[in-house]
Amino acid sequence: MQPFRFVHAxxxxxxSPFRGLRDVDKRVGERLRxxxxxxxxxxxxxxxxxxxxxxxxxxxxxxxADRSVRAQLRFRDGMRRLSEAGISxxxxxxxxxxxxxxLSAVSWPEGxxxxxxxxxxxxxxxxGEPLAAIQGVSFPTREVRENLVARFETPDSNSPFTIGLLHxxxxxxxxxxxxxxxxxxxxxxxxxxxxxxxxxxxxxxxRRQSPAVVYPGNIQGRHPNETGPRGCMMVxxxxxxxxxxxxxxxxxxRWEPTDVDISEITSIDxxxxxxxxxxxxxxxxxxxxxxxxxxxxxxxxxxxxxxARQGAVExxxxxxxxxxxxxxxxxxxxxxxxxxxxxxxxxRSEADDFLGATLRTAAKALDDKEGVQELAQVVGEVFxxxxxxxxxxxxxxxxxxxxxxxxxxAELLEPEE
Length: 417
Ligand SMILES: [Mn+2]
Description:
By secondary structure, the protein is an alpha/beta fold. The protein folds into three domains: 246 residues, CATH 3.60.21.10; 85 residues, Rossmann fold (3-Layer(aba) Sandwich), CATH 3.40.50; 69 residues, no CATH class. The chain is 32% helix and 23% strand. The chain contains ten helices and 15 strands. The strands form three sheets. The protein has a six-stranded mixed β-sheet, with helices on one face. The N and C termini lie far apart (75 Å). Bound molecules: manganese (II) ion. Manganese (II) ion binds next to loops.
């Protein structure tokens, strides 16, 4: 067979509104609203520059079922550029852009194929020879609870390289809606060569071969939990049919968490310096992209009291934003203050006084099962004892609160230490 190359992308979410971001400045908001369009253009450029044979898109092209006209026209423009370059495109729709949400009529250029609600085969040809056979199916409606893999046909023995194109939640990933659920075994048992999947936004290769099972992730991060590089997979298939995948970043704004340890820092200006150093590091790592950062301050030290003062963290945030550089910028989206006072809880809990005794009781709840159960009894009533009671807290929650309460108590009772 002839060797060939294709791009596998998914979850473009073109024209995501980024509504959830409060008090973002105008420049950042504008950039974010453009970001999904730009990442999409980067994908089209990549396909043309790398002279791929075809492109497959595994659903969620548009962010909403009420696809914006702007998103549809921009997408159509990208398809035209690929068509002119002789690159064919194979598309399925997912839960964000199901077939029943499609309202405007768009005339697609030659070489664009959109799969319908029943799986079908499409053959990609080069110089009159079949390169690959692609089987795909679109979501007819948003909430698909059926395992769509069961409806895929097994290829016959003289098929070329085969690709399954599907929007699905493999193995019940709890971070995503459980639409068109299937198991890795379901996919493994099909006789296809490559499963081009979409839906899970974090890039992952679930199997390398026979068949390869790949989520390329989304092309542009859309919130603080979609961190790091986002893009698509470039897939090379050799003459022998072996598969080589390479990730290509397409994102234009990157979400990154960072952490500054305060334990060696003794003044607020030194703290600002340390933070700015971390932000500079993020800018370098992002290679010219803009960065939105969530900053966690951690560690035990004297800066804890300074930060605990009313308005101190907000002031610091305002200052960091005011001094942010011109493009490319690093925008601090939020500061989490996880710092602790300088108290040594272990040695303090040995003292024969009220605080020592309380800390020892708390340690018991943290360390052994009985202690947690005792705590659950005392605290549980607050949750379950009322009308329309809340669900009882888990052991992990109880332990987390206890750990936090120890610090607060120690600080209240020993403010001078
Ligand atoms: Mn999606």
